[in-house]
Specification:
heterodimer; A: 112 residues; mainly beta; globular; B: 116 residues; 6-stranded mixed β-sheet
Chain lengths: 112, 116
């Protein structure tokens, strides 16, 4: 089944404790991205990747890192999480030349 | 820069009523795509429709219909005979396709509550 998976789905952590949210897609898509969703703000793009080893900032990249060492994986790294990074995070992927993005199920992160 | 406005923050209706969710967009590009997503209480994003800027035909899918009007930069979504299962947050989104990073610009969402 074609899908985007994220892990973990739920995470409660404390300020400053490094964490990684994984994202994996099995559709051989070139493009992947991360969004965060906050009440009253909709979804905003954090980072995106056009292909392996090609990443760039979205609209709200501060406090986040990403890497794209393999085509299927696009982890989101929070080196020192802070409470303002409490949010619902979505990973998405799309195939080059097509304009439909496939979203993962979301990761609900709480930073205390 | 792109912008999507969903002026209705919350809508509450009684089952079987028709309801229209408004979406107004801004872009300078002539080629762009518009989307609607549904986010039920479980949290996942469910793709509903994609429309490109060259296709102004309205679309109907069961109880759902979409009205795209370039003249007013609107892409409104109507649910006919609403049901409790339609209760969700609905997002309108825009991207300008190739040549960009394919970023989706989302509206802030409209929370629809359908009461029995």
């Amino acid at each position: 089944e074609a899908q985007v998976t994220q892990n973990p789905r739920y995470l409660i952590t404390v300020t400053g404790k490094k964490l990684t949210v994984t994202c994996s897609q099995n559709m051989n898509h070139e493009y992947m991205s991360w969004y965060r969703q906050d009440p009253g703000l909709g979804l905003r793009q954090i980072y995106y990747s056009m292909n392996v080893e090609v990443t760039d900032k979205g609209d709200v990249p501060e406090g986040y890192k990403v890497s794209r060492k393999e085509k299927r994986n696009f982890p989101l790294i929070l080196e020192s999480p802070s409470p303002n990074q409490t949010s619902l995070y979505f990973c998405a992927s799309r195939r080059e030349g097509l304009n439909e993005q496939f979203f993962g199920p979301g990761t609900r992160l709480t930073v205390l | 820069a792109q912008k999507v406005t969903q002026a209705q923050t919350e809508i509450s209706v009684v089952e079987k009523e028709d309801v229209t969710l408004d979406c107004v967009y801004e872009t300078r590009d002539t080629t762009y795509y518009l989307f609607w997503y549904k986010q039920p209480p479980s949290g996942e994003l469910v793709f509903l429709i994609r429309r490109n800027s060259f296709d102004e035909q309205n679309e109907i899918s069961g109880r759902y219909s979409w009205n795209f009007q370039k003249s007013t930069s609107s892409f409104n979504f109507t649910i006919t005979a609403s049901q409790v299962v339609d209760s969700a947050v609905y997002f309108c989104a825009l991207n300008i396709g190739w040549g960009s990073n394919y970023k989706l610009t989302f509206g802030k969402g409209t929370l629809l509550t359908v009461n029995p």
